[in-house]
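Q: How would the C-alpha cells look for this protein?
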Amino acid sequence: MVEQVIHAKETFERSLGSLFTSAFTAGLEIGISFFVILSAFALLNDVLPSRYAMVLSSLLYPIGFIIVVIGQSLLFTEQTSLLSLPVLNKIEPLHKLLRLWGIVIAGNIVGGCLFAALIIGLGLHMHLFTDHAIDAYAEHILGFEWWVIFGSAVLAGWMMGVAAWLVTSARDTLSRIVLVSIITGSIGFLGLHHSIVGNIEVFSALLYGNTVSLWHYLIFLVVVLVGNTVGGVVFVAVLKNRTFLFEIERVKEQAAEARAEVDRRRF
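A: Here is the predicted structure in C-alpha cell form.
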C-alpha cells in the first residue's frame, strides 16, 4: 500500500503534457486489442456460429493491455483506483484527482478515436473484416439495458483495479504479463464493458457501421466511464485503503518525526 501511494503521488507531480501524451499513447495501444479481435472474429465467423466466434475472438483481449501495462502508459481504468489513494489518505486534494482523471480520460479517448478512424479504416481496406463485423461487435456491446451496461462496467472496473493492484505487486515482467492476461482475458471472455476499449468499439461502428448514432455513443461512454470508476474506486481503492490504513498512518508518523528531527537540527 505504501508503494502504491508513493507511485500515485509521483503521477500527481507529472506535467500535464506528459500525462496527456502517456494517456494518448495508451488510447492508441489499447486499440490493437480490438483490431486483432475484429480480424479474428471475421475469420472465425465464416466457420463457426457467430456467438462462438465472438467468444473465441475475445480471448485475444489482453494483447493491448499487455502493451499498455508493460509500456507503462496511463490507462484510465488501470489508474482509476490507485490514483485515488493519495486523496483517500488526505495527501492530495480531490480537485487534483479529478483534473488528473480528466486528462487521462481525454487522452485515452482521443487516442482511441484516432486509432478507430485510421487503423480500423485501414483494416476495412485490407479486407481483414467488414462493416457487418463492426456492427455485430457494436451490437454485442450495446445490446443491453443501460443499468446492465452500468453493472457490467462496475465489475470490469473492479477487475481492472485488482489487476493494477496485483501488477504493481509483481516483481518481474513475466508475472505481470500472466496476471494481465488472466484478468483482462476474463473481462473479454465475459463480455464486460471497459470504457476505453468500448470507446473504440462503438466509435468504429459510428464511423464505419450502420447501426450506431452519435447519441448512443455518447450515452454509452458516460455510463461505462462512471461504472468503471465506481468499480475501481469503491471495490479496490477504498477497501484496500481501509485494510492497510495502519501502514499509511505509520509512514505518516515516521515522516512527521523525520521532519521534526530535521527542524531540531536546523535550529
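The longest helix spans residues 94-125.

The radius of gyration is 20 Å.

Upvote if useful.
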